[in-house]
Amino acid sequence: MIPELGHIALILALLLATAQAVFPLAGSLTGNRPWMTMARPLAYGQLVFVAIAFLALVEAFLTSDFSVHYVAVNSNSLLPDIYKFSAVWGGHEGSLLLWALMMAGWGAAVAVFSRYLPLPVVARVLGVMGLVAIGFLLFMLLTSNPFERLFPVPPEGRDLNPLLQDPGLAIHPPMLYMGYVGFSVAFAFAIAALIGGKLDAAWARWSRPWTTVAWVFLTIGIALGSWWAYYELGWGGWWFWDPVENASLMPWLVGTALIHSLAVTEKRAAFKSWTVLLAISAFSLSLLGTFLVRSGVLTSVHAFATDPERGLFILLFLCVVIGGSLALYAWRAPDVSEGGRFDLVSRESALMLNNLIFVAFTVLVLFGTLAPLIYEAFNLGKISVGFPWFNKMFVALAPFLALLLGIGPAARWKHDSPWRLTKMLWLAFALSIVLLALSSRESISGGDFWVPIGIALAGWLLFSHLTIVRDRLKHKKQPLWQALKADFSGNGRSFYGMVVAHLGVAMFIVGVTMVSNHQIEKDLRMSPGDSHEMAGYRFEFLGAQKVNGPNYRADRGHFRVYRGDRQIAELYPEKRSYLGGGMPMTEAAIDAGFFRDVYVSLGEAVGGGDWALRLYYKPYVRWIWLGAVLMALGGTIAVSDRRYRSASVRSSAPAAAATAPA
Amino acid sequence: MKARQKRLVFVGLALVGVAGATSLALSALQSNISYFFSPTQVMANEHPVDAVFRVGGIVVEDTLERQSDGLTVHFDVTDNAAVVPVSYNGILPDLFSEGQGVVAKGRIGADGTFYAEEVLAKHDESYMPPEVADTLQTAHVDGVVEQTAGSLAPTSTTRSPTQ
């Protein structure tokens, strides 16, 4: 009964979404106020019904109702409750439902936090979000209904894919979806602005916090996915340039370009049409990613069992969204007035270069991801693009981005003099050169010239941003620390958010550089009692034992890790075999540290108590994810800036409302 | 005039950047792609001699042998029309097993053995790499095609949730 209620709730949500798309939009074009005011209640209503559907599915999972096909395929009565819950989004249908829930949640959030926006703008934004929601709800109801019943009812479920039985993966998809779906808000604001024909600084200011929040979620989602792949897949890598990963990276890259270009649009009313184009692209790439992953056109190590019918639906949806919004863009964008002019040396120029590089990254990732399809379409053979290509491309461009990143925030809007910038940044530059020289020594660089370059670039980011903070506070009378505190709690949030995020980039660079050049990986066979020495650590293997988990059996190895004579860790890597599907799985054991991880994963038993296994030494690998956490933290700080809070928006809202077309 | 010159400088820079990046990207791509060949194609010598490529098919039952070092393994890969012997030094993926689909990346040796640098097994019980599925279909062995189709049927699928 409850699954049917969920199904009906979904259908009702679709009806509400349709109403939300039709009436407010039509009302905003004809000036029909009552129709426009319907936008908010409809958005709340949509959230309520999607939430009911979601809870119905949660209920089916928690009570192990295997008469629901999706539950039978993705759950098992032995599964711990926490994973029964996260199994709700463990498969395609449920993850779509989660997507729809978040979509409705973002819509309701816009409805709540837009009290100071002019009504036509709210109506258009929510109307566009309603249109997108129609697409997803239809997709779910037509091709992937999570409430489909199964007859005869199986006595037991097939179990959740063991790889997904992990806390990291329980929260990774929700974060990622929050990001993807969040870009639909930026998209809706852009489309609403195009419909209204009014692209101005106010539009950018309204859209900015939403975009940043979406970007923060996506950043965390990607970092969690990378962290999960690192410890759960037991491959020891943190990024594989797999199509599924690339699908999440592309919206992130464009989203990063977007939050920077929105800054220019807000502050200088420039880059307006470009910003709109980026907002459209960020969301379109989220959809494209879904298409690539769901349609099965690409080989991925994530390996999805796919359904061509679904791929076709998403492809059509993608065409409608991209085609429709680009047509609207082509029709409206020429009317957009040109924004503030700027000189060659100015912050606008730096941000433009930033955008160019991020778009170049995106194009490269898109090309590398689609190359197998292109080759096959032209009958050039079945290829796969090796990850060294992606690495090469990023390593070639990233140093320019990092250099620029130290200069851009120091430059003034509109016009700056190269001389002033040199005077301000020479010390930071000199210190980075010193760092370059110091880290070129054999003991640090290991003879690889990318190591000193990476370290020096990270140092450059640190020093230049410290300089920039100092420069901002130099006219304050108070001591530096108090001035910093006063500025932070005053109007400086978005500035300090930027600084924190950029320092996250520096940390990320250090992590990537060190782990890529200094990691050690060794496959070997060990007998109980054997020791192996690697990177100054001695791994002692004490043998493996059989153990039983709640829904699996495992061989558990026992290792002691020594640094010199001191034992620093005991590690218990496991090789599990899950009872539900009999699927084997490696559970790596990691001793995590701020400066290094040591990592053991079991391969297979090779007879006589011996094991084939893999040992890793991963220096600074945590810095990669900590860098991402800092970036996300920076975004969060920036969003808390005073000028985004409703009280201060109020002052500008009446003016904007007065000029908005009724 | 001045603003126009500036714009020209910007456009010029952008063009140079795009052209440079494109040529760099394409030339690097050539050395980083690997083509896929079925065992039949390999036996017909259609594969490159001195380059990395991928071969895929089903691991033939009872052919997995492990050498005494515990790390080097041999197994045969077939598309039901031809067989390629594969040698690999390292730890096999969790889901590697006889009778299942696999894709190996590496080079062919003078002895006709394929020396794999990387072995990818399906990552999901019901998943078959599309190349392998194609290979099997073109080999026209009905039994296996049916078996493959069966394992791809939506009733028996598990999926990864990432996106």
From TrEMBL, chain A:
GO terms for biological process: cytochrome complex assembly. Residues 89-295 form the Cytochrome c assembly protein domain. InterPro entries: CcmF_C, Cyt_c_assembly, Cyt_c_biogenesis, Cyt_c_biogenesis_CcmF. This is Heme lyase NrfEFG subunit NrfE. Belongs to the CcmF/CycK/Ccl1/NrfE/CcsA family. Keywords: Cell inner membrane, Cell membrane, Cytochrome c-type biogenesis, Lyase, Membrane, Transmembrane, Transmembrane helix. NCBIfam families: nrfE, PRK10369.1. The chain crosses the membrane at residues 6-30, 42-62, 96-114, 121-142, 177-197, 209-229, 249-265, 274-292, 312-331, 352-374, 394-413, 425-444, 450-469, 495-516, 620-640. Required for the biogenesis of c-type cytochromes. Possible subunit of a heme lyase. GO terms for molecular function: heme binding; heme transmembrane transporter activity; lyase activity. The keyword Nucleus does not apply. Pfam families: CcmF_C, Cytochrom_C_asm. Residues 315-642 form the Cytochrome c-type biogenesis protein CcmF C-terminal domain. GO terms for cellular component: plasma membrane. It is a multi-pass membrane protein. It is found in: Cell inner membrane.
TrEMBL record, chain B:
Its main location: membrane. Residues 29-163 are extracellular. GO terms for molecular function: heme binding; metal ion binding. It is found in: Cell inner membrane; Cell membrane. HAMAP family: CcmE. It comes from the Bacteria. Heme chaperone required for the biogenesis of c-type cytochromes. Transiently binds heme delivered by CcmC and transfers the heme to apo-cytochromes in a process facilitated by CcmF and CcmH. Heme binds at residues 123, 127. Residues 1-7 are cytoplasmic. One of its GO terms (biological process) is protein-heme linkage. The keyword ATP-binding does not apply. Belongs to the CcmE/CycJ family. SUPFAM superfamilies: Heme chaperone CcmE (SSF82093). It is a single-pass type II membrane protein. Keywords: Cell inner membrane, Cell membrane, Cytochrome c-type biogenesis, Heme, Iron, Membrane, Metal-binding, Signal-anchor, Transmembrane, Transmembrane helix. NCBIfam families: PRK13254.1-1 (NF009727), PRK13254.1-3 (NF009729), PRK13254.1-5 (NF009731). This is Cytochrome c-type biogenesis protein CcmE. The keyword Transport does not apply. It comes from Halochromatium glycolicum. The gene is ccmE. GO terms for cellular component: plasma membrane.
